[in-house]
Sequence to fold (332 residues):
Amino acid sequence: MDLSSLLDLCGLHSTPGDEDEVVSFLLRCWRQHGLVPEVYGRYAVATRISGASPSAPTVLICAHADSPGYVVQRVLSDRRRAVAVALGGATWDADELPTQEAVVKTASGSGLCFLNQSLLERQAVEVFANIDVARGDRICFRPKARIRGSRVQASFLDNRIGCFLLTHLAGVLSTPAVNVVLAATASEEFGGFGAAVLASRVQADLVICLDATYADKKQDVRLGGGPVLTLSDASVLVGRPVWNVLERLSQAWELPLQTEIYNSSGTDARAFPAQGSLAPVLPLLIASEGNHSPQETAAISDLETLAAWLTQLCGDSAAVAELIAAGVFGEA
Fold:
């Protein structure tokens, strides 16, 4: 698998509500593959790949385009010092590294800055920049991305991984058995506005949310174990009938699938039933270490397996129909 697009995506600045760089990358990629993008304000973008029949079900595959960051709340006396508040759960180990390199994006351009967590204010950092800053300027960790053996290490793997898969699928899903919509949302890390708009605009029969999750020894969720299906968290509850189908597909296709269970946190999955969609929603995630930190790590094999899962599913109309049917209450 060619990961050059993933490394490029990890070099872009895309905090909640300011996803222009990542969205522009996706739009260019889709157009290069002959696809026609649809833009839903500053909330979501999508493109459609027609299936073998217009009457075939529609599978929506979406990923959020933002990553956690900060926004300047107030500027101190010399205009190069400021206080910024978190947008999403950006974090680093301040005991190990008291200050963190970052990039501030201003009206006149971008510049380096340093963040310090010494403030007593909740979810706030002090900013020391090499350019003048203003209220509302966005800050993200300084981008870093590299391949180390079987691992990819980068800032913003959550959720450039999902966006990368949207570019990959645009190139390989030339003749899917079902109608496919590829989409990216804004503000998943803070607010969830983008997915709500997407859910109201795209009428899907099956929804797949691509995202990152935590490697978790207690649940035996590990790097290299395959993609992760969230069976429950604060945004989704996958019923046993749907999970039964996925287990069978995993065995038939010889593609591993890990599972996780939480009662907090969540993904864009919550938006679809909230908007009245009847489609089953499947969060298919990539396990990572250092989630929301300046250096996140994921296994390349998990990306390859998830890409294979999605390609196989979009080429198998019977499997899609089975999942859709399992998402409807029936007689016991």
